Each structure stands twice: as structure tokens, then as C-alpha cells.
Queue: 2 jobs
Job 1
Amino acid sequence: MLRRSAQFFVLILIAALSLLAWSPSADTRQIRVIGPSMAPTLLGDHDAWLCAECRFPFATGAESVEIGEHPAVCPNCGRFQPEEAQPQRKPGDQLLIDMLEARAGKPMLRWETIVFRCPESAEQHKAEPHCIKRVVGLPGETVELRGGDVWINGALARKTLAQQQTMAMVVHDSRFVPNAMRGTPLRWKGAEANTGWLAGEAGSFTFSGTSPRRRLGSSPGHPLEVDWLEYTHWRRSPEDPTRFEPAAIMDDYAYNRGESRRLHRLNDLMLRGSIKAFGPGMLAFRGSVDGHTYDVLLEPQHGRGRMLCDGVPVDGVNFDMKRPLLASSSQVEFSLVDHQVLLVIDGRLLVSHACPAEKISEKSVAADIAPPFAIGASDLSVTITSLTLLRDVYYIAPAEAKAVTLGQEEYYVLGDNSPLSADSRTGWPGPGLAARQILGTLQGP
Ligand SMILES: [Zn+2]
């Protein structure tokens, strides 16, 4: 009898939990996004395109652009979409908002997305009194935007990899291969004429190293003896749209279509791919930031790794898993966002290095057309699929760039679509958003 009632109570409990999970709650509310200020993270009314050249799906804002005035440009391959192309008009994203009461007085966190009552002076929001932005400055902090990054009390505000991922935009996804017959150059290529890297199906790459193992130099002027697969960013020549020229990666937004402004060169990039590697040799991930070259060197068979900066080993940046890595296809993320180097394999953080202050440059560095990323291999069999290059948001500083100190009940908030967002930088009575205006936070990451 006792056992039966225990079973009965377990059943009741399961039913109650299910009800809680499925019933609409007073703690959440559904909203629809209007406007471009959080694009491409969150979309307002938009046109959904499939690139005529590479089939990459992308969106352009449908609210602020005279259709037909400016062509839509594929962010993945640079193709101007033909006039006859018919994008699909779609309504803004539906989001679930955790209402503020549900947080029981917990303060907002940096990089969190919030919904709030728009400040009264935000003229364009008269019809729609709610705004959605990302928190970048917390009460009492001094906030400055420099070099596209957020500086808090004089120190760089760095994001975790998970935070970077919520804001990252695709620069190039190798799965969407442009039509080489039209002369669109490939972005990833072996650096040497006799390279061991081969481009395969659906944007995959393979390498098989047959050369005897060579000593790997690690001193300046002693190049790594690996075979590099390099990324080159191509831009259509303004004079002749059938020609391409190598270019730096800039902070343009395909979403904004016709918007015309000065672009900024990006330092904050991330590489993601599925990688399988087998053999006694070395796999190298190379990226450059602030004019410095960082190499993470990995011995997959031993699960060991270390990092060089400009060819010199960086003290304390090494790992030894004592078991093989990448023996089966693994998700690899190599990030140079916010002046830090991160290497993550299957969710495990193996390298985390904040670039020291003396190596941070807030100005664009010359020679910026050098490949931002390369993957090198020697004496390995390597397969790479779904290789994707992403970029961080570049926060454009207000015209009168200066540090702003927030009050004790104020937040500094910015839109991800930095060129078009009205936010703490512009148009409000002051830069701070009063905490009492905040209604809730976006559910999820
Ligand atoms: Zn394309």
C-alpha cells in the first residue's frame, strides 16, 4: 500500500512539472522584432535571399530600404543579386522575453539582450514603445568604445566564446561554394604550388602529408615547416565587377543593403570547423591580430599543444590531454575576438590567452591584407568540413568619442547593427538607460 501511494505521488509530481513546462507563464511574454537595430542577430521584417551564385541564405532589412535602389549583396561570396531575383518577404523574429519580475531583483549582465520602454526622445519609436538592445555597460561603470571594442573602467571587456557566438556574423561559410566557372575565386587555398591540401565535396578540405617528419622551428625567422591552407578575402573590383582583388575584412552588413558609410577594418574574427586528424605530425592554427601572428600548434596523436606569438613560445600557454585529440571528427573553434586567443575542441577550452596590453593596437595595422587565418599540417591525414569564418560586432564610436560614466541605476546599451542602431551612443537624453525602464531579458543565450 505504501509503495502504491509512493508511485501515485510520483505520477502527480510528473504531471505538475509537465504542466509548468508547457503552460504559458506570467513570467514570459512573446514579442515580435521590428526594426534593424539588432540585425543580423535578431531580424525585423526582412527579405530572405538564397544567393544566385553560392546558394548562401541571407537576409536584408525590409523596413528602411527602397527596394530596387541598391542591389542586395551576398555576404558569403560578394555576388550582387540579379534584378530578377525574388527574395521572400518575412515578418520579424518572434522572441520569448523573461519578464523582469521573474529575475527576483537580479541585476542585468553584460552582453545580455534586454527589452525596455524606449526613452521618450527616441522619435522613431513613438509607434512602438519597446526597444531591444544588448547591455554593454553596468551601473557605475565608465564606458568607452575604442577600436570597435568595449572598454570598461579603462580595461577591455572580453567576451567568453559562448557570448561571442551569440553575436557572431558569418563572413564566409565554405559549404556554400561559388560557381568557379564565373571566375569567383576560392577563399581557402593551399599556400604552396605543390600543396598537399585538396578541396573536396561541399566545401571540404583534405590533407595527406607524405613527407618525412621535419623539425619544426619555433624561433623568429624560422618558419614553421607545415603546409598552409590559407584564407584570402576577395572583394569585387569597383571598376570591373567581373574582377576580384584581395581585401581586408570590413564591418559591412549585408542586412543594411544600400547604407553608405565609412567602413572599419576588423580585427575580431573566429574560425569554426569540423576537423579529423590522424598521424604523428602537427596541426597548426594561425591567426593574426594587431599585427601579431599567433600559432597554436597541436600534436593530435598525443593531445599536446602550445602557442607561439610571432614565432616565440608564449609562457604558460600549453596543454597535455594525455590522449589523442581529433581522432574522430571534432568541432574546433579558434577565436581571435576581443584581443584574446581561444582554442576550443568539442566544447573544451584548451587555449585562453588575453593579449597583453602592449600588443593591443587600436588602429588598423598596415599589411592588413595578409591572410587573417591559416590552418597548417605536416605528417597528418586531415579532413575539414563546414569551415566557417565569423566576425564580431564592431561597435562604432559616437562622433565625439569619449568615456561616459553611468549613474548607479543606469545601463549602457547598444544594438548589434552598430551603423543603424539608435542606442546609448545617440539621440537619448543621456547615455544611460534607467534601470526602471527595463521590462525583461531575451530568453536563451
Ligand atoms: Zn553568394
Job 2
Amino acid sequence: MVQELNKKSSPTFSSSTTIEGFTEKETIALFQVGKIRSVENGEYVLRKDETCNILTFILDGSSKILFSENDGESFSVNIKKGSLFGDPDLSKDKKNRFSVVSSGASRILEIDQFAFNLLPPGIQISVYRKILDTFTELNDELVTKSGALSKKIESLVSYVKDFYNDNDQYARSIMIQDMIKNFPRLPIQINRLTSMLLDEGASVAEIAGFAKMDPSIVSIVLKIVNSGYYSFQRKISDFHHAFVLLGFNQVYQILMENFLQGVMPRHFNLKALNLHSAVISQIAFDIAQLSKKSKPVMMSTLGILHDLGKCVILVSKAKKPELDIVMARLDDCKVGSLLLDAWNTPVIIGQSVEYQKYPNFCSPEYIPENCIENVAILYIAHLCFDYLSGNEKAEFSNTYLQEYLNIVNLHNHSIESLMSQHIMPSLIKKMDVFPDYVRDFIKNQQTTVTFSSNK
Ligand SMILES: [Fe+2]
């Protein structure tokens, strides 16, 4: 495209077209070696990512800089007449960092490397100085713009934060209190198991021993493990065997799914929710293990519990269909957090659930320090899940990703590299212990993620 520019017009000079920052003699010399091009409104003077091997003076008219095609007006910077763009070393094949678009009819003067070399050294130095001046002015304008932009972001974040940050109102609301009260309580044995899984001090033997002592837990787990959901070759009749084979995470998932199945309205299909929780739980476990932040078993338990608020809302909506619009607008994270508090789970669990959506719209400083690592892991696990599902996430949800990756020491990773190098190989390795719907989901997505198998 840039090459096409040279086609047009011969150099002309009049006293009305002197270039600011150059003497008349210098201006004449520039016009003698350069080529003038007329540009129309909306025409590109420079285009981002194209090779820039030409110097471009904006002679008159108005133009603006766009840093990306999608930036819109708020990210554009107006350019003064007389500005000069280009790299002083034209022999380098550099790419334009931004586009320059004409915002009316205007004229530009273009000088290529051959023409530039014809200029006397004194004029070449003036050209370098002009480029420096242009970029200094641009830098000043960008600093001012970024200050104004920061203020806008702050005000948007505080608006969204105010919307979410009304925990007391939720806790005080009679309607929410009723919803929590009417949601069936977790059976005491599962509640105890939840506490043990979330308790950093509980040993594997203690957890397995406790679960084994309860006949209802044993019968649920053995019944489901031997059902069509799992593909074990031989019948598993011993709880300890099932526990060793499946691990905490799967046993707990089985118990919670069984509990929710009994709680949710009959017509409601829990499959999508179960799948989401099971995969998030597994990914959260893997991220905790990889990052050495937070406890892997606690994170996998949190993964299973993190969307309970949705269940509370669904149950309440089924009981009071006339309140469907109100229910649809409730923050399920806050409701889930209050439910977990009512079940006496440790404060950090309810808090992690409450703040789980914050990373979508604000930086880590707005999240309580004690639950920040859990929230970061849950957030990253959700992005991995979306990537795995092939769901395009709204662009804003990645805005603060780097900051949350830093929190859990994964700054050298992207979602793609995490998936291909760690999460996908780990999911495939554990494939046999997942129920059929999770296995099918992983198998279906396997082809979309290129991964380095470490089986
Ligand atoms: Fe979720």
C-alpha cells in the first residue's frame, strides 16, 4: 500500500505550505525530494502492522491516530499539521505501531530512503528532531488520555463494585433468608466430610476412615461407582477400594451430586451444572497443585461448591414462579456464599464464592487478601473451562487476567499454554475416574486443544 503512495503528484511548494520547525530553505529541499499525496476523508495515511519505510509529513488538514481498528474514538489521538511519522533509520524494516487516518481532505508529503539520503546532513538532523518532537507531543497526549481513561475505569469499577458489594443487604433480606432456610440442609455426614476436606489438618486416613464409618455414604458411593456412569471392568464392593481408586474429589462429587439430585425440582436436568462443577473442581485442583498456591483438595472441594447459589435460586424459583424476574437478577455468588455460611463452612470458602466474579471486572486489590488466591484459581479455572468448551468469552473478562496469573505465580502462562501443557494432559491421565458425561466432554474437546502429553 505504501508503495502506491509514490504514484501521485509532483512536488510543489508555496509559502503557505511551509513546515513548522523547518526553515524556508529546508522546506524547499524537503519538497524537492519528497512526493505530495492528497488523501480523502477516512483514507489511511499509515496502516498498523504494515512495513514503514517512508517518512510522512502531515502538511495540512486533520488526521488522527488509531491504535487498533476496534479502539473507537475514545482511543484516537488527533494529529497536528506538520507532524512527521517514520523511523529515522529507513533501512530497517519496521512495522507501524498504529494507523494514521485522515479525518478530512488533506495532503501529505512522503520521503523514501533514497530521497532522504539526498538531503544535506543539516536537514536530516532537522528531520530527526521533528520526528522526536512529534513523538514527544504524542507521548504527552497519551499520558493525558491515559489519566482520563484511568478515571473512567475507576468510576466504572466502583459502580459495578457497588452493585455487587451489598452483602449486608442480602444477609438482612427476609426473602434471601427464607431462600437459604428453605434450601435443604446438607446431611450431617456430608457436612462433616466437607469440613474435613476443607480442613488443612485432616489426613487422608482420617477422611477415608470417617467416610467409611457412615453406611449411607458407603452405599451411595458404591451404588454410583458400580452404575453405568463409570466404566470400571470389575464390580467394586469395598468402599476403601472405591476411595483409593477415585480419590477425595470424585467421592465428594458423587455425594454432592446425589444430594442435589434429591433437592432440585424433578424436571430440572442437573447434567450441565454437574459437568461444570466437576471439571472446574478438577482444573482448580490442578492449578493449585501447579502453582503451589492454596490447597489442592480445598480448591477441588471449592470447585464443587462454587455454584451452589445457582441451585438455591433454581429451587426458590420453582417454589415461587411469580418471582422469576426477581430471582433471575439475584447474584448467585452472594446467595451461595450465605448458604455456605449457614452450613458453617470456613469463612474463607463463603468469601471465595462471594468474590468469584470480581476478576471479570476489577484488579486483585479489590478482593480480600485472605481469599485472593482461591478467587484467582477459580477465575483461571473458569477461563480454562470456557477454552475447553470452545466458548468465546466476552473480551472484557480477560482484562485483568495477567494480574490474576501473577497472584498464583503463573505469570509465564497463558490460558492456551496452561491448557495444553498441564490441564489437558492431567484430565486425560485421570479420565478413568470421571463419570461418563465428564469423559465424553473431555474426549469431545480433546481435538480442539493441542497438548503435550505427559502420560
Ligand atoms: Fe462456575
